[in-house]
Amino acid sequence: MCMKATPEGCELREELKETKTAVAALDTRLTQVEHDVGKMRSETQEGIRALNLSVDNLAHDFGQRFNNIEATVVAEKVEWGKTLRKLLTWTVAIILSGCAVAMGVHAYQAFFK
After folding, report:
1. Cβ–Cβ contacts within 10 Å for residue 2, how many?
2. Cα 81 from Cα 67, distance rounded (Å)
3. Which pLDDT tens digit goes with each residue over 33-66?
4. CA distance readout (Å), 98 to 55, 65, 90, 91, 101
5. CA dist list (Å): 49 to 18, 19, 20, 54, 107
6. How far is CA 64 from the centre of its chain?
7. DSSP string, 35-87
């Protein structure tokens, strides 16, 4: 049954029916696109979280390695400090022994001349 009793009215009714069908199909497609975009957003957010976690783990690992290296360097500096202190002590002892010997020789020459 036509909206109007004219041939154009019947054609408009058919076109309106086709338009409604096309709009319903577009609505379904748009819903699917919205769903896909929502899924892409959630995947992106999960990827960003995973990336942040990886960066945090990498920073933590770097910090641990740097602390280990620093501890090793400090331990080596302590050992070098001990070695240099011992060397300085021996040097001072040798110089003082030499001075004592020189003073003894001088005193011997002064008294027993």
Report:
1. 13
2. 21
3. 999 999 999 999 999 999 999 999 999 999 999 9
4. 63, 49, 12, 11, 5
5. 46, 44, 43, 9, 85
6. 12
7. HHHHHHHHHHHHHHHHHHHHHHHHHHHHHHHHHHHHHHHHHHHHHHHHHHHHH
The first and second tokens of residue 46, run together, are 């999960």
On the 0-12 / 13-18 / 19+ scale of CB atoms within 10 A, 12 is: middle
Please state, in angstroms and rounded to a whole number, the distance separating the CA atoms of residues 66 and 39: 40
Q: For residue 1, what pLDDT is reported?
A: 46
Burial of 13 per CB tally in 10 Å (0-12, 13-18, 19+): middle
Please report where in the chains the tokens 């109007």 appear, as a residue.
4
Q: Rounded to an integer, what is the distance from CA 45 to the centroid of its chain?
A: 18
pTM here is: 0.49
Would you list the DSSP string of 25-39? HHHHHHHHHHHHHHH
